[in-house]
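Q&A log
Question type: sequence-to-structure
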Amino acid sequence: MEVSSEKSKVMVSSERVNDASITMDDEPLELVHKFKYLGATLLEDGSSTVEVRTRIALATAAFAKLGKIWKSSISFKVKHKLFRSLVSSILTYGCETWTLLADTERRIQAFENKCLRKLLRISYKDHVTNESVRELVVAYVGPQEPLLATVKRRKLAWFGHVTRHDSLSKTILQGTVEGKRRRERQKKAWCDNIKEWTGMAMYELVRSASDRDAWRQKTDSSALRSPRRPHRSRD
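Response status: OK
Response body:
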């Protein structure tokens, strides 16, 4: 395998170190604060806010390009299938890696509500609640998994998949590093979402995820459940 020095970048993810000097073919590699890998935007602080906003923007653009279809006389059932396959798939690309905050969850929900209103030709001036919009969707196409629940389910499923296999991903996910945590409020970590959605501590999650069928049931129920505070533990 050959590594291209022109396409290689260096990004430091540390609160103490902000510089790194790495060379390739006697040429220093460029130090960046963010870069794209397999279509996803990675930041040096490990947050997913920019990536989620980028995904929403791309999905919004894809939705706008299909404006003629949304305004056509095609049945809502067909329009909804096109929305799920051509638009929602763009937004949820790589969602297994996201760390969701309250703000990003609201943005995902707002995007879906806006699109559903467009498909149903319901204006915000009509003073129709989001709950009523959901009820109309169910009346036309039956029960549907909300977009945010899809993101949660896929992330929970990925946790189970990684936990059941010995791999580098499992080492990174469950491993710890030396040192003390800072005294200020901690940033939300990837696993914090899993703990919140399931209401379980890490040792309980690892044990539960080892059973594929049981974890699948846990994933389906947790994805639709409102988040609650996770159990406190030292893991």
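Response note: The beta strands are 9-10, 23-24, 27-28, 30-31, 34-37, 40-43.
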